[in-house]
Amino acid sequence: MVTIKIEKFEGPLILLLRLIEKEELDITQVSLVHITDQFIEYVSKITNIDPDEMADFLVVATKLLLIKSRALLPYLYPEEEKELEDLTKQLRMYKEFLEAKKKIEKIINNKKFMFAREFNRRAILSNINLFSPPKRITTVDFKKVFKELLARLKPSEKLEEKKLEPKISIEDKILEIKQMIINRIKISFNRFFTKSNSKTEIIVTFLAMLELIKKREVAVSQKKLFGEILISKE
């Protein structure tokens, strides 16, 4: 299990999430980029990464991202916030699939591929006639019945087509932010998000901003508590 070490915390990532959820630690003081860098460094030193550990990190990191997005971007649309919550649910489901995969692999390794049906003793004792196919039935008869069953099924409905959103990378957003501030002394933090068309673009923009701050390529200032946040070239 990877141990996260930041300015105001040192310990497992799940403990960090619990402290933030209990409001014992301010999420705005936590660098998600720093946490991600530490996990990537940890993974690079391991020969075989445990899928469960990777899934756990994705679940917790997504939850932290959701909490931080709510704190720093309170104007998120309800449907976009729901999509972030749905992502967390999908990652948890992914973890459940990994656990199921382990159980199936264990069964296969034990070479136990056949499971006998339980003997219906109660049906025999109560003189209930169990189903038994006619002795003269053939594969042709089965084929005929199967075709009749298929004919009763409703035709499948055509699914609604979805357009794929263009891929947005952190590198592209970093270049875009640099271009926006190149001829300006200071620019409002909120202005970087006015042209964002989706929650994905908002998150990528936010991560690009964190990366620039981390590299000291931009400076952040705020005159008063809860006041406007201004961005300028370092």
TrEMBL record:
Gene3D superfamilies: 6.10.250.2410, Structural maintenance of chromosome 1. Chain E. It comes from the Bacteria. Pfam families: SMC_ScpA. InterPro entries: ScpA, ScpA-like_C. This is Segregation and condensation protein A. It comes from Candidatus Falkowbacteria bacterium CG02_land_8_20_14_3_00_36_14.
